[in-house]
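Weekend entry, working from home. Most of the wet-lab plans are on hold until the incubator is repaired, so I used the time to fold the two sequences that have been sitting in the queue since the last round of cloning. Logging both here for the record. First:
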Amino acid sequence: MKKFGNFTVYIIDDDAAVRHSLTLMLTQQAMTVESFESAEEFLEHDLSHWKGCIITDLQMPGLDGLQLQEALNKRACMLPIIFLTGYGTIPQSVKAIKAGAVDFLTKPVTREKLMVCIASAFADYENKLRAEDNAQRARDLLTKLTGREREVLAFVVQGLSNKEIAAHLGISHRTVEIHRSNVMQKTGAMHLLELKQIALESSQHKLPH
């Protein structure tokens, strides 16, 4: 039976029977599960170190599933969301997917279908973690640069030549060459494409772990 590391499935549903049946189904698949009876209860927690995915109902008292999704997006929460509802509409499903949901399922759902969705959600979460790790490494590299080196870097990634950069900054062509060499050395970039990738990754929005 496949193991899922330290990932957890967070179930949010006001129906206790649904929470129980989903918990039973997933624990039988060697998954760790935590359940909540409302979006408000879930949002009371510090989610910054929680890892895995969310399965949530759409229609719930208080905050509904879409409002929960909106609240989580405002927190820049990385936990992927799977909607599981008995009363979803096409406009609701479109809105959920556009806002980043992994899938929008209707009850009842088969074990096979749900497991495929959860696997996809876990993969999505891992990709987000990897992207944020790369972004943080890139930001760490760029902290080594001086202010002038950052200015040169910005022009370099735009494709400007040393002569054009010198004209923009009012410095000599030779000085640009020195700054450019320092940038390559400090970032460890071996070529322009790698340098552009570092600059791009460093600009990605920082997300909580």
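Second, folded right after the first finished:
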Amino acid sequence: MEREGILVVISGFAGVGKGTIVKGLIAGYDNYALSVSMTTRQPREGEVEGQSYFFVTKEEFEKKIEENGLIEHACYVGNYYGTPRAYVEDMLAKGKDVILEIEIQGARNIKKQYPDAVLIFVCPPSATELKNRLVGRGTETPDVVEKRMRRAVEESEGIFEYDYIVVNDEVDKAIAVTHNIIETMHSAPKRNRAFVTSIQNELEDIAKGE
């Protein structure tokens, strides 16, 4: 039975650890392909061009929008983020499960274009723990932390639009749970139409005595 690629959207509050989960999926299993997003924000320490993000200017980003080269894009905390189209569609055609680590606005746009996409929202065990993680990573000023927490309040209103939630309390467990969700989705009848049709035809032939 030929395996179809699934488009997987992983979202979550800033600081929740969704990037760590994505890295764990890519490193631990061979069926995933990570779509690298494009952004106009400045690189953080340790981030690599073309691996973490494609870092571009606002003008370059807006040109890509005009060329229809993005399958989704949104503005978050004053910066553009978007998903290049060509790589995603190529990997899906090859049977890979393509992971998009994007925020809620982008997830909504993806669901409109790809109704069969699986949307997963990563949550912290508590709001207090989320703030502790934001402060603890030491990459944002107190003012930015405050903005991200206010943004989290807004994002929480959209959680029910997702198909699944994963609570990132223990990272290894969260990675395994996320992988199991995606693997389970591969068994959905709508993702195996050719196989189901083949069985139906075979049953009809047998019933007719052919």
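Plan for Monday: verify the second prediction. The chain has a mean pLDDT of 91.
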